[in-house]
Amino acid sequence: MANLGARINDVSSNQVEIPVHSDGVEPKASEESSIDYSQRGQWLRAAVLGANDGLVSVASLMMGVGAVKKDISAMLIAGFAGLVAGACSMAIGEFVSVYTQYDIEMTQLKREREAANNNGEAQREKLPNPFQAALASALAFSIGALVPMLAAVFIRSHKIRMGVVVAAVSLALLVFGGLGAVLGKTPVMRSCLRVLIGGWMAMAVTFGLTKLIASAQL
């Protein structure tokens, strides 16, 4: 019995403990660490910037037209023209910019692949996507540009229409500023105020200069 007990103790002391969560936790952690957030941030950045640009530029354009024209049709036509032109410009600009970055990274990848003698598939997945960035920028610009247009379309009174456009744009600027702060991990209040004041300045300058030029009858 003593020998049997010694054998049992000897066998139990040589047993290897298997972690309970070895099949559950570690693969999840590895999968989570393999996610490339830089590629996701590429189109998020383009979307936020595009929406903010569409909002400010089209709203400023409509305010400039509204400074000299009380007709709602003139404001809406100007806003629509700004939407189409701005969306095309943003898409082309973003495509060219990101494609240039793509070419640079592809060249660098070829150098590293030749030096390390590997196929470089892991690096290839991290390359920026010009088409994705261009599409996100154009769509976001259009969404931002629709805010002042929808705010003005049902208002017949000129003064009330101008006030509603400013109010709607101010609210949208706060939303875009907060969203950009969350994505960029920056202070929300500071980002919202910066975007709001910048939008107000753009609308005020456009309105004032257009009014000045119209009064001078140039």
Automatic annotation (TrEMBL):
Keywords: Coiled coil, Ion transport, Iron, Iron transport, Membrane, Transmembrane, Transmembrane helix, Transport, Vacuole. Its main location: membrane. GO terms for cellular component: vacuolar membrane. It is found in: Vacuole membrane. Residues 99-126 form a coiled coil. GO terms for biological process: intracellular manganese ion homeostasis. It holds the Pfam family VIT1. The keyword Transmembrane helix applies. One of its GO terms (molecular function) is iron ion sequestering activity. It is a multi-pass membrane protein. The chain crosses the membrane at residues 72-92, 133-155, 162-183, 195-214. Vacuolar Fe(2+) uptake transporter. PANTHER family: FE(2+)/MN(2+) TRANSPORTER PCL1. This is Vacuolar iron transporter. The gene is LOC106752858.
